[in-house]
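Title: Comparing notes on inverse folding

I've been comparing how different people in this forum approach sequence design from structure. To keep things fair, I'm posting one structure and asking everyone to reply with a full sequence. Here's the target:
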């Protein structure tokens, strides 16, 4: 390519860099820097975050542990977690709905798990599912460090499509009054239909889905809006530390099989 042609494209390149600068920053923090630190430390980012929590957070204090994770994500390494803005929405909805039993698909490091667990009513129970054993091991330690025992929060390691059919028989979950979908947006529709098919959603159940705008779950949203079994509401937010990147949490209220 000649210098003249390269110079002709320079304004376009500059425009794209300026317009999508937030996405480039996110790419650098979540992929490039994370991969480099993984190689140098021999630990995953979630494991490094837990080591930070061990030395900076108060055991038995879920709120302080959550604040410590937020600080780590903002000042050390981007955690790709739910973050405080979405966390306030989640906690408010859990407190409002007061579910006797809740289900989370996608434990990740345990951040949203702690949010749900601390907002449950007395005697409430949370089952949380994580497919990656190494990530689940970190989340398990974080949950127990926060003071929640297995009677309140039970972590299941496995693929959501394999765990959901066994929830009733193996884990004694006959109904999920509140569900948080926080694993892979492309799996949201499949897993919602599995929950419906196994009669785990009672009428009036609340289904919350994170990351429905970024990276997005268009097929899930289309189904929820068109099937006639849900009332839908979208809570608009931004990504933690990247408020210019718009995202949202969808709140569905199940009307029943109809």
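Reply #1:
Here's my take.
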């Amino acid at each position: 390519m000649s210098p003249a042609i390269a110079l002709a494209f320079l304004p376009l390149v500059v425009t794209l860099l300026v317009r999508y600068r937030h996405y480039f920053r996110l790419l650098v923090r979540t992929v490039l820097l994370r991969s480099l630190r993984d190689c140098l430390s021999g630990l995953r980012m979630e494991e490094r975050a837990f080591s930070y929590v061990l030395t900076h957070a108060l055991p038995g204090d879920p709120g302080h542990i959550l604040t410590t994770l937020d600080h780590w994500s903002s000042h050390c390494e981007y955690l790709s977690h739910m973050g405080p803005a979405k966390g306030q929405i989640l906690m408010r909805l859990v407190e409002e709905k007061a579910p006797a039993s809740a289900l989370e698909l996608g434990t990740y490091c345990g951040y949203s798990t702690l949010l749900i667990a601390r907002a449950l009513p007395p005697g409430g129970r949370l089952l949380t599912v994580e497919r990656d054993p190494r990530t689940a091991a970190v989340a398990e330690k974080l949950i127990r460090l926060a003071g929640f025992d297995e009677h309140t929060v039970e972590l299941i390691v496995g693929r959501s499509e394999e765990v959901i059919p066994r929830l009733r028989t193996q884990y004694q979950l006959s109904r999920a009054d509140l569900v948080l979908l926080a694993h892979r947006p492309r799996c949201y529709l499949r897993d919602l239909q599995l929950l419906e098919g196994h009669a785990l959603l009672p009428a009036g159940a609340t289904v919350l889905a994170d990351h429905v705008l970024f990276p997005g779950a268009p097929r899930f949203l289309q189904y929820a809006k068109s099937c006639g079994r849900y009332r839908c509401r979208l809570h608009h937010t931004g990504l933690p530390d990247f408020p210019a990147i718009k995202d949202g949490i969808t709140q569905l209220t199940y009307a029943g099989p109809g």
